[in-house]
Structure prediction request, 692 residues.
Amino acid sequence: MSRLRAMLSTTAVRLSALYLGLFALCAVALVFYVTSISVGMQHDRTQEIILSELRVVAGSYRRSGITGLVRTIERRSRQPGANLYAISTPSGELIAGNISSIAPGVLDLEGWTSTPFRYSRLGDGDDEEHLALAQVIGLPNGMRLMVGRDIGEREQVRGLVRQALVRALAIMFAGALAIWFFVGRRALKRIDHMSEASKKILAGDLSQRLPVNGSGDEFDRLSLSLNTMLGRIERLNEGLRQVSDNIAHDLKTPLTRLRNRAEAALSADGGAAAQQEALEQMIADSDQLIRTFNALLMISRVEAGSSTAQMSDVDLSGLAQDASELYEPVAEEQGVKLTARIAPGISIRGNRELLAQALSNLIDNAIKYVGDAPAPEIGVALHRSGDEVRLTVTDNGPGVPANRREDVVKRFVRLDESRSKPGTGLGLSLVHAVAALHGGHLLLDDAQPEAGDNPGLAATMVLPGGK
Amino acid sequence: MKILIIEDDLETAAYLSKAFREAGITVDHASDGDSGYFLASENSYDALVVDRMLPKRDGLSIISELRAKGDDTPALILSALGQVDDRVTGLRAGGDDYLTKPYAFSELLARIEILGRRKGGREQETTYRVGDLELDRLSHEVRRAGQPIPLQPREYRLLEYLMKNAGQVVTRTMLLEHVWDYHFDPQTNVIDVHISRLRSKIEKDFGEPLLRTVRGAGYMMKAGG
Prediction:
């Protein structure tokens, strides 16, 4: 019952009811118009025929008097499909013509009969009555002449048209019902499927998608855009989940270490100096923790794309120049040669802070991991290639084996298992996220594949656009 | 110097007040937005320390309302929201500096001391002098004991910022922000390396060291003692 009510309240049903109503109205109006016109035309034609008959009959009357008239009428009466003729005496008795009976009073008034009247034709059964239109003329001796025409045909047409109207209305109604039933029910079903799917999604199953049947109709388009939205929500959710997993797994360890250090310091016998040292170490540890925490938050915010609001034109050449300049002394101090090959005048639409941070993460990594190569060297290069901008940091260190390149981009993944170098294990994750935020990607490759043991790493941020 | 701390966490506020007093700074404290705004508009302070999220009234709205009234007391915003865009909104609301929680007190102190003295301002001075070191802001020339010292543009800006705030502690992050316009932590000792380069240029062959390292805090330009 509620299903029926739900169906009656659907848009499809309401629309088809409206269409049905409008169509019926138009059809009725059209039918009335057509019948009234055709009926009028037939009326005029009937009168014309009667008038021309009258002219013939009147001619024979003028030529040969009443006898001639009677003769003409008798002759014409016998012709097939004859019109109606009657001559009556003043007392109303029918003396000639092809009519056996006529509605009373028709012959009393001269001129056109105002309304169709009933009559019976000679030779027909007594009970057969027809409708006719006629002109009545008074003859000088008190007799009456009536020439008329059956209008049964006209009435038949009118009846046919009415019947057709009723049938058409019935068909239209049946059609509308069918449309109601199929379209409405189909739409209802699809909406039911959609709400089922969304209930599952609500219940937490973000991998669910709304059904798409490939017809490309409104429902499909709605489902598709909702699905795109769901995909994005799922990715964001996945990111959040990963952050909380990371916090659980990778922040617990340093926190535990911090706590152990505090405990050890409390029970230390080394006196004030040892405690002082322990405290300083604890501050350093907490700073590292905070740094990790901030980096994590930053990555998930970049991945969520919330920084897109702060996009502006960034002079990438200047930015790369600045970063190289900032790190050049650091590299030099560690015996690493830093070379910059930066094409001038390249700018892109982006977030300067994030791009600068991503680039400094890459340079920082390069300096850190170029390691013990015989002549450690890193390069910062910026150039345009087609409609892309490539910002590359290379080193000639041990590089990253091809099968680990996907991993190192993940959070907290470090190739250096002993974790002897300082760092959060988040540097490349941020670079990756920043590149993605700008519609680009991070490409990791050998810097010098032919160099055997030390193929080096070429980390390239491939960014679209630029001018 | 007298400052107002608007901070709703009482423990933090007590710790900050004590630490500032030990550094010789007078402190008033308000624990919610309304009383903070009231105190800030009734009294005259050298600087405000405003927590971004406060009960009753948002920290940013306090600052923007003070600015709308023409009050330009320097304000430092403390916030747990530390992302690029948060800082931009903070500064746009009229804040003069932005520090993300958690922070080292030495960092906050250094920034407040510089903000608090900014009112007097050395912006107009065309020549900075520390001991026998001279920096001409018009010709971009640096001399020590009358002898010209050639500097790279970035080294010049580093020295300019240090000399402008002579006698104050300047932290590594402050240098990164003002000299390189970087608002993130590069995780390496980049600044230390630049400082030591600069130091070798301005101090080698000259007697008295002027650019000092303040342990656990940053650097300070200072002559004598």
